[in-house]
Design brief:
The complex is a heterodimer of chains A (about 325) and B (about 300).
Chain A lengths: L4 E14 L2 E14 L3 E5 L6 H8 L8 E10 L2 E2 L5 H10 L1 E4 L13 H6 L8 H14 L5 H4 L9 H14 L4 E5 L7 H18 L2 E6 L2 H7 L2 E6 L2 E7 H6 L4 H8 L50 E3 L2 E3 L9
Chain B lengths: L13 H4 L5 H10 L7 H20 L36 H37 L1 H16 L2 H12 L3 H28 L2 H8 L4 H37 L11 H9 L7 H27 L2 H4 L1
The chains are: A alpha/beta (about 325), B mainly alpha (about 300).
Chain lengths: ~325, ~300
């Protein structure tokens, strides 16, 4: 990719506070997203993928948790060093966010026009705003948008609400779009529609997209790059085709084997990954995947494996060189 | 057209296809949701109560403290009395109707002041505890528990013993006893609203805590608050009556329903109307407030609301 880097995350660390304890949720991850490029952040529940996304927007704040290390540069500016006012400006103008659950993404008490207009700060007059909102909704496939401006969220279906939520994110005209499992709560046909839409929007607007999902098949549909997270670490990252066709990390391979849409031979028995992810408040000293890993040996349990690069792919596994 | 989702299935069918009609049509539909109709009876009693308290004293036939020993213990008009004293008179010849009307003002004043003060404190604590969370939340909720565990009557006796009985002290006592219910109920409401994605969305737009509270949290707890207020209104009226009945409430000779009830109790066999009318007024008002609260609760039920 030669396009300009929009988001660059280095060594991001985030903890949650749990009583007196701090629980590490993100343990030093790197991400780079260029304009017009979508990166999937993939992992199971509790792997820290949503936390990482929220951390970038500085939304993990006490008493919930806090970012303890790393940088997140948006177009060169380190977001973690901005004063609150500048950060608000960034949030309001540069980062769009699409939430997971469209049923709660909109405040039931306000019309959708009101809610989109809050984000459309660039237009001055009411009419200008209306035009922008209608054109946005039209583009997002909301039928009869002009007539529905004054409708309330409960008058929309789940898919339509998600389109409205996307409209709110895009009304800012952001450089970066962060989508946190935007299709998980939708039925399959609606899902496909929303995914296509996000893909088209990325091209049209040259958006950098951070796409948080647990679904590799979904990631493959809309993303060019992928970062696989496990227990707060990125265990494998690279161009999505390469990673999915020749997975180097045993966890990535296990995920692929467990996915009915991606398993190599159809109609074969899917393989579940034995065991459970380690609890975040009691992480093993070595590779967090070692207890479940078929290739694990003694060395794996001693220290977290360093990141090794193979072409465009980076992997945290001491055995990565043996594979593929 | 957009498919309906399951939770909408109890809605009136007209909601489905139609693009939003005017506000009026929307409101009419809302009023019918959940099969509830407007509570004309309880609402009417509350309106009557408020009107009586607010402007009634200007129309009362006598001064409530006007003593007329020549006309003591006159029965109500339909029970051998005269139309001079429609609800009869007490042992000092004071007009029961006039005292009832002025008593409504005292009850209304106390109930409103208590609900407003306790409500404001309760909402503030609920929002701070629920929205901020963490240790502050734990601390505030333990304070709420402590307040709820405190016996109101004991507090009332102590306060009145130290500062003497007065309407102001009644309000302070009842407000102190009342805020905890608001804080407790609304805090959980705040927490459940806080977890909605629209709050996250607001934060991703750079919205600060205060703005989110004003814009999203407060409007969304309003329905619950209204229910609480109507129930607490009834509780405050009863509590004021109880305190006055025990002689530690609104001091005589000012008329109050609880005080009239207490004075009239000893005359029950000779003049049944003395305790009956204030008791009736008290019961009806509280019953109406509770019924109104029940209706508001059904009306605002989330399964019929969204």
């Amino acid at each position: 990719m030669t396009a300009a880097t929009v988001l660059e995350v280095r060594g991001l660390q985030t903890v949650y506070f749990q009583g007196e304890q701090t629980v590490p949720a993100v343990r030093g991850i790197d991400l780079t997203i260029a304009a017009g490029e979508a990166t999937a952040l993939v992992g199971e529940s509790g792997s820290g993928k949503s936390t990482a996304a929220l951390s970038v927007m500085r939304l993990i704040t006490p008493p919930i948790g806090t970012v303890t290390g790393g940088v997140a540069r948006l177009a060169g500016r380190n977001l973690f060093e901005l004063d609150p006012k500048a950060m608000r400006h960034v949030l309001l103008h540069d980062i769009g966010y699409v939430p997971q659950d469209p049923t709660t993404a909109l405040d039931p008490l306000f019309t959708i026009r009101t809610q989109i207009a809050e984000a459309a700060t660039t237009s001055s007059s009411r009419r200008e705003q209306d035009e922008l909102i209608v054109s946005l909704l039209d583009r997002l496939g909301v039928n009869d948008a002009a007539a529905r401006l004054k409708a309330y969220p409960h008058e929309f279906s789940g898919g339509m609400r998600q389109r409205v939520a996307i409209a709110i994110a895009l009304a800012k005209d952001p450089q970066l779009l962060i989508a946190d499992e935007p299709t998980t709560a939708l039925d399959v046909t609606t899902q496909l529609g929303i995914l296509r839409l996000l893909d088209e929007l990325r091209r049209e607007r040259h958006l950098a997209v951070l796409f948080v999902t647990h679904d590799l098949a979904v990631a493959r549909l809309v993303c060019q790059r992928v970062a696989v997270m496990y227990a707060g670490l990125v265990v494998e990252a690279g161009p999505i085709q390469t990673v999915l066709s020749t997975p180097r990390h045993p966890y990535t391979r296990a995920l692929l084997d467990a996915d009915p849409g991606l398993a190599e031979a159809p109609r074969t028995q899917l393989r579940a990954i034995p065991g459970q992810p380690p609890p975040l408040n009691d992480l093993p000293p070595g590779c967090p995947f070692a207890p479940r890993c078929p290739l694990a040996e003694e060395a794996c349990t001693r220290a977290i494996p360093p990141t090794e690069t193979f072409g465009e792919v980076s992997v945290r596994c001491i055995k990565a060189g043996d594979a593929a | 057209m957009v498919p309906l989702e399951a939770e909408d299935s109890t809605l009136v069918v007209a909601d489905v296809g139609a693009t939003p009609a005017g506000e009026g049509a929307r409101r009419r539909r809302r009023l019918r949701r959940g099969g509830t109709r407007l509570p004309w009876v309880s609402g009417g009693i509350i309106v009557l109560f408020v009107l009586t308290g607010a402007i009634g004293p200007f129309f009362a036939p006598y001064h409530p403290e006007h003593i007329d020993l020549m006309n003591s213990l006159k029965p109500p008009v339909l029970f051998g009395g005269t139309s001079d004293h429609i609800l009869g008179t007490d042992q000092l010849g004071r007009d029961v109707l006039s005292r009832l009307i002025h008593g409504a003002r005292v009850s209304l004043l106390v109930a409103l002041a208590v609900v407003v003060i306790a409500g404001l404190v309760g909402v503030a604590i609920a929002v701070i505890a629920g929205y901020r969370g963490g240790r502050l939340d734990a601390f505030l909720m333990r304070a709420t528990d402590a307040t709820m565990a405190f016996p109101v009557l004991l507090l009332a006796i102590v306060v009145v013993g130290v500062f003497g009985p007065s309407t102001r002290n009644v309000i302070i006592i009842l407000a102190f006893a009342g805020w905890a219910s608001y804080a407790r109920v609304l805090r959980s409401e705040v927490i459940s609203i806080k977890t909605n994605d629209f709050v996250t969305m607001a934060r991703t737009m750079g919205g600060g805590g205060r703005w989110i509270v004003r814009r999203h949290i407060l409007p969304n707890i309003l329905p619950t608050l209204l229910v609480l207020v109507s129930l607490q209104l009834g509780i405050a009226i009863i509590a004021e009556g109880s305190l006055s009945f025990l002689g530690i409430g609104v001091p005589p000779p000012a008329p109050s329903w609880g005080g009239m009830l207490a004075d009239g109790r000893s005359q029950l066999t000779r003049a049944w109307w003395l305790p009956t009318f204030p008791g009736l007024a008290l019961s009806l008002t509280v019953l109406a407030a509770n019924m109104l609260g029940d209706w508001l609760r059904v009306f605002n039920d989330p399964t019929t609301r969204r």
